[in-house]
Design goal:
The chain is α/β, with parallel strands linked by helices. Helix content is 38%, strand content 16%. The chain is built from nine helices and seven strands. The protein has a seven-stranded mixed sheet, sandwiched between helices. It is globular, with a radius of gyration of 16 Å. The chain starts with a helix and ends in an 11-residue tail after the last helix. InterPro entries: Plipid/glycerol_acylTrfase. Pathway: Lipid metabolism. GO terms for molecular function: acyltransferase activity.
């Protein structure tokens, strides 16, 4: 195992301990088991700490083969962020600016899947800073499902992380969090892109707590 891999495993373990200490995060495996085949965990996105919370909920072996898809424009902006993304965290960096990008994000993500990496993916494409529970899903999840139909698509709802680490905050605020993992989805034969994305969005929203705060 390379020095970078050892450092990433150690960092993941430390971050998991810290995340549990701050958030008391509790995984709810509502529609699937913790162990399974190659997966894409697709989740709501409102905080930079979202993927850390999902990783914390995974078993160590699964955590060790799971990487978060993140924007290269953010994580390559400055030496500190580059070090965190490239050395401490397991990230698959994609260039989101289609005008300036040099590598197709699909090529990068498919290469990671082909190398045996499960992915944490945010189909909204950016952090949701609105009052809506979810933004419209972009095409990435559909493209991945069409290109690698054997990969499980597992919806996971991250609860409260936007309040633990709101935009602009440096230190987290201790609050209880949950991550609810739903039943895996598959792209149906001949299924239209919009129909699939709407179905995936509904499946993710179904895992969110009710307005009174109780689980679905």
């Amino acid at each position: 195992m390379s020095g970078a891999s050892l450092l990433q495993r150690a960092s993941a373990a430390v971050l998991a301990v810290l995340a549990r200490a701050v958030t008391g995060v509790r995984p709810i495996w509502a529609g699937t088991s913790p162990n399974g085949p190659l997966r894409i965990y697709f989740a709501n996105h409102a905080s930079h700490g979202d993927f850390i919370l999902v990783c914390t909920c995974l078993h160590p072996a699964e955590r060790g083969r799971t990487a978060a898809v993140a924007g290269a424009d953010y994580w390559n902006a400055g030496p500190v962020r580059r070090f965190i993304a490239g050395r401490l965290l397991r990230t698959v960096l994609v260039e989101r600016n289609w005008v300036e990008r040099r590598v197709d994000p699909m090529e990068v993500m498919l290469a990671a899947l082909d190398a045996g990496e499960s992915l944490i993916f945010f189909p909204e494409g950016t952090r949701n800073m609105t009052e809506e529970p979810l933004l419209r899903f972009r095409s990435g999840l559909y493209n991945l499902a069409a290109a690698r139909p054997e990969v499980e698509l597992v919806p996971c709802w991250i609860e409260n992380m936007s309040r633990v680490l709101p935009k602009g905050a440096f230190l987290p605020i201790p609050l209880l969090c949950r991550v609810v993992f739903g039943a895996p989805l598959k792209l149906e034969n001949g299924e239209d892109r919009k129909v699939f994305l709407d179905r995936a969005r509904v499946a993710l929203l179904a895992l969110a707590p009710r307005k009174d705060g109780t689980p679905q």
